[in-house]
Amino acid sequence: MSRNAHIPRHRKPRSSNVNKALRAGATGGVLGAVALTTAISPASSAAEKKDEASETVEMAAVGSVEKSTSEAADSLETNALQRQVTHAESKATDSAQDAAKQAEKKAQAAKRKAEAARKEAAATRASRTSERTALPSASGNVAGMISFLKSQVGKPYVLGASGPSSYDCSGLTQAAYKQLGVSLPRTSQEQSTHGTPVSMDALQEGDMLYWGGAGSAYHVGVYVGGGKFIGAQNSSTGVVEKTLDYDPPSGAVRLG
Predict the structure, then answer these.
(1) Where is the NlpC/P60 domain positioned along the sequence (predicted)?
(2) Do 255 and 195 form a contact (C-beta atoms < 8 A)?
(3) Residue 77 within any structural domain of the chain
(4) Which of 60, 131, 153, 175 is most buried by a 10 A CB count?
């Protein structure tokens, strides 16, 4: 047989393209799954982190909103309280001003009333002074009146008597001042308010003395100088001349 004769050869069966494709597909599927898993895992992790970040931002935003809302509420409440305080202060100020105005009005009214009372009192005093000074002026002289009084010393005291033989206190003074042309009321109470009041330290001869209050005197006499007076004292003594310290008088008036 020649070398070139055809000798049949045994060949290994070849895998079909299908098997290769399956193997390649399986391998690729595994690798793809791994790759997909690997790819998904970071993406999932990133998404979770993103969600967490979003939640954190949202919580921060919510907290900020809550804080802002709380601050706004506090501010509104503070403003409301401030307005209430301001209103109360304004009302209190108005009340105080009203009270001050009322007090001022009352003070002015009291002042006007006091001024009117003062003027009325001054007018009354002036009227009384005018009445007293309008009494008839003395036509005689004090020395003659004192001489008359001395001539009556020793006469008896008789209640209601006005001379010439007996006297009571106001009857004697009425008769004495008649020597000066001065007409006096009959009673000691009325006589004690006639004339001009004088101090006991400034007595002059002829001044009328009285015991008790002016207008309510229970006894009268006449100052005759030298620290003495003459008067119809009582039924025991009659008309006498005594020193002032014998029975100090309460006051004195000057007539004529």
Answers:
(1) 139-256
(2) yes
(3) no
(4) 175
pLDDT of residue 137: 44
pLDDT for res 97: 86
Among the listed residues 201, 211, 178, 195, the one whose alpha carbon sits nearest the alpha carbon of residue 131: 195
Pairing of strands 208-211, 196-198: unpaired
Is residue 156 one of the residues assigned to a domain?
yes
153: three-class secondary structure by DSSP: coil
Q: Which domain holds residue 151?
A: 138-254
Looking at residue 165, its pLDDT comes to 97
- Dist. CA 147–CA 206, nearest whole Å: 11
Name the token pair of 234.
């009582």
Is residue 200 in some structural domain? Answer: yes
Cβ density class 120-156: b for 16+ within 10 Å, e for less: eeeeeeeeeeeebeebeebeeebeebbebbeebeebe
Evaluate whether residue 210 is within a structural domain.
yes
User: What is the domain count for the chain?
Assistant: 1
